[in-house]
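Researcher: Please predict.
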Amino acid sequence: MYILRLRYLIKMKKFQLYSLVIILLLVLSACTNNHESTTKSPAESFTYEEYNDLFSKMNKSLHLPGYQLVESTSNKKSMIAIDNELSFGKREILTVDGNQNSNLTQERLIYKSDDSSRYTLLDIIFNDEYIGKDLLLWPQQTDTTTSIGYLKRYDTALLAYENVLVQIMSLSENKSVNPQEMEPLIKAVTSFLKDQ
């Protein structure tokens, strides 16, 4: 009887040992998974200087189909002071470090359609944190946005490109803006960013 019990314990110990090895292998394989992480180090994001270079390139070379660039903030540096509660307590001036300096975190390009019926504004925004590369926002049309006059004449989209956000806003004084008109604008911006 003692020998049977001893054999049973040895079998149980082997079972527990094999189970432990399998669990460890599963845990280790999960830890070394090669899927791309969405978190990048700051070294892989745009520096502030690279952000400025990107804006300069966009200002000089970004063409939106059916539009002409009419204005840019490239030579208009003015600080925007805010209540720091609006930035969750992070800063009181919209600069990289929140202090009074010329390191502004937003720039704007304004385009006018060839037929002068629409304007498209691109806001290029610097962020400390890596976000990824994605179209983050392109709101759905709703009954309200398709029936109220001034809402029909407005559309917006938001792109993330590493740690830079690009808001695309298209407006018209008297013509509806529809997704078919917005899509080429988004494509032009994403294509430009991919080539950088």
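Model: The longest helix spans residues 2-31.
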